[in-house]
């Protein structure tokens, strides 16, 4: 059976505390197979017999809202898509793995939206950005904590939600898949 990773946003940050055991238990109740978490920030590996649809992402987000009162965006990606998130990221190998991120997006934003993001952020920081397939590649040169390139800023310009993971975490997730 193919293996997938569900990337949950807004977990164990900003007051949204949830144990990974509670998350695993909730997904197992929905008959999701071979559930395993990687790193305590909302990365869930699972088996699924067919290509997950947007409906499955919506189900996972619904579980978060209904059972845990957490508004979470969920991106589901296959092993090949996680590998591409690392291999296609033009900043991997050049920036620090902890500062180089892939932000998984709900949909593919139009090039015009990406261009608007670049224009709106010009002169605000040293971050480097590149658009991928349903993802945004970011090198937070000086780290995420002090960056003015926030998830909200990105989402408003691109017109879709997302959740980011650094290259180090993606490498660990891929190895587990």
| Terminal CA distance | 12 Å
Radius of gyration: 16 Å
In which range does the helix fraction lie? 25-40%
CATH class of the largest domain: Alpha Beta
- The count of strands amounts to 8
Query: How is the main sheet built?
Result: 4 strands, antiparallel
Give the SSE string: EHEEHEHEHEEHEH
CATH architecture of the largest domain: 2-Layer Sandwich
Shape: globular
Strand order of the largest sheet: 2-3-1-4
Question: How many discrete domains?
Answer: 2
Poorly predicted regions: none
Average pLDDT rating: 92
Report on this structure.
The chain folds into 2 domains: 77 residues, SP0830-like domains (Alpha-Beta Plaits, 2-Layer Sandwich), CATH 3.30.70; 90 residues, 2-Layer Sandwich (Alpha-Beta Plaits), CATH 3.30.70. Helices cover 36% and strands 23% of the residues. The protein has 6 helices and 8 strands, in the order βαββαβαβαββαβα. Helix 4 crosses helix 5. The relative contact order is 0.18. Pfam families: DUF1697. This is DUF1697 domain-containing protein.
Give the topology.
Elements: E1 3-8, H1 20-29, E2 33-37, E3 43-47, H2 54-68, E4 74-78, H3 79-87, E5 100-105, H4 111-121, E6 128-131, E7 135-139, H5 151-158, E8 162-166, H6 167-176
Antiparallel strand pairs: 1-3, 1-4, 2-3, 5-7, 5-8, 6-7
Helix pairs in contact: 3-6, 4-5
């Amino acid at each position: 059976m193919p293996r997938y990773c569900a990337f949950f946003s807004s977990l164990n940050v900003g007051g949204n505390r949830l144990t990974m055991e509670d998350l695993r238990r909730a997904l197992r109740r929905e008959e999701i197979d071979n559930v395993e978490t990687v790193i305590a920030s909302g990365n869930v590996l699972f088996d699924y017999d067919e290509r997950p649809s947007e409906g499955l992402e919506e189900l996972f987000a619904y579980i978060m809202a209904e059972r845990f009162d957490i508004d979470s965006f969920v991106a589901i990606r296959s092993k090949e898509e996680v590998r591409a998130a690392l291999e296609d990221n033009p900043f991997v190998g050049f920036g620090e793995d902890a500062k180089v991120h892939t932000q998984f997006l709900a949909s593919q934003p139009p090039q015009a939206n990406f261009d608007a993001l670049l224009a709106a952020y010009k002169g605000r920081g040293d971050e480097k950005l590149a658009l991928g397939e349903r993802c945004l590649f970011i090198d937070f040169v000086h780290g995420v904590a002090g960056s003015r390139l926030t998830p909200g800023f990105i989402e408003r310009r691109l017109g879709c939600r997302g959740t980011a993971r650094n290259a180090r975490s993606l490498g660990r997730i891929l190895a587990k898949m």
